[in-house]
């Protein structure tokens, strides 16, 4: 504190703060989302937003809410029901339903997706409102995560076109790409034949955009605003197989079981190394791997994150492995921690190890994770933790 007082002009309020772990689809708080939905119900009530699965005809926004017996006047924060409570503790499945406003996945598709009937218009609008708030605060920056699933080859081009068409840029924001570990879901739905299809869908468009930018103009421009990749899913899910030297190659992984965490990260990392070398040779920006790691599940996830990641998100399990904790300290591998998020999912606030990590010299930062689920107001998480 004494050293901080010696720095002129700077205090906690006007130092640069970067939210390094933030999911774009939940980067707004619940009151912000509520106001946005109510406003669009008044402004764009007659806009077609979705196709009715029964009749096959487009439905307007007013018709969607009429089918739910709701009006703009009826909506409130409690009815929105996106806030994570104690019922989500150790229940990742229940937590995922909190992404659905009013418990309706249809509303998530309309308001919080980039690829829908309105081409992601509403999602872009609310993201730009969040970005405007960051710009007005001047000293707050963020690295929101957008999803690319690897289930089809055109995902990257669609996402990039959305970003360019709606100009979802800000000097206070750079993008990260999160890749959900859902191969088993895609396989069960016959979207892919092997894990190689997922890897191909994830990286082939990136190599093509690097080699021939003129063939992928939207993707080429979008990638200039991307800094890192993330791997996300529920780490507490049991892994039926382990990654060894006898594990099949991606083109031979045709079983319906999901590959283990280490398998996903290894093949993401190895492809990123080749991609980065190619992009660096062509004078383009490169990417780092910053996976979700150590929120739950086995400790070996932390070992994989340490070996392959530039930094990790969560790192709660590190408190149980002092030797690995020491390696993180020596290497200064970053750990973006989210105490309020952990409090609703895996570890009570009082037991969170962030203070211990900090005083021991680990490279930790505070992040919000999902303001939509965990925050009531725009208050910065750093203030909450300080208090």
Low-confidence stretches: 381-387
Question: Mean of the pLDDT scores?
Answer: 90
Give the overall shape: globular
Sheet having the most strands: 5 strands, parallel
Assign the structural class, choosing from mainly alpha, mainly beta, alpha/beta, alpha+beta, or little secondary structure: alpha/beta
Quote the beta fraction: 5-15%
Rg value? 21 Å
Terminal CA distance reads 16 Å
Number of helices: 18
Q: Helix fraction?
A: 40-55%
Order of helices and strands: HEHEEHHHHHEHEHHHEHEEHEHEHHEHH
> Using DSSP, what is the number of strands?
11
Question: TL;DR?
Answer:
With 387 residues, the chain is an alpha/beta fold. Helices cover 42% and strands 13% of the residues. The two termini are 16 Å apart.
Supply database-style keywords.
387 residues, alpha/beta, 5-stranded parallel β-sheet, 11 strands, disordered C terminus
Q: Can you put this structure into words, describing what you see?
A:
This protein has 387 residues and is an alpha/beta fold. The protein has helices at residues 2-5, 30-43, 61-67, 77-80, 92-97, 105-111, 121-137, 155-165, 183-188, 195-211, 217-223, 261-281, 300-308, 322-331, 339-345, 354-359, 371-374, 381-386; strands at residues 17-23, 48-51, 58-60, 140-147, 175-180, 226-232, 288-289, 292-293, 311-314, 334-337, 364-366. The protein has 18 helices and eleven strands. It has a five-stranded parallel β-sheet with strand order 1-4-5-6-7, covered by helices on one side. Helix 10 (195-211) packs parallel to helix 12 and helix 12 (261-281) runs parallel beside helix 13. Mean pLDDT is 90; it is low at 381-387.
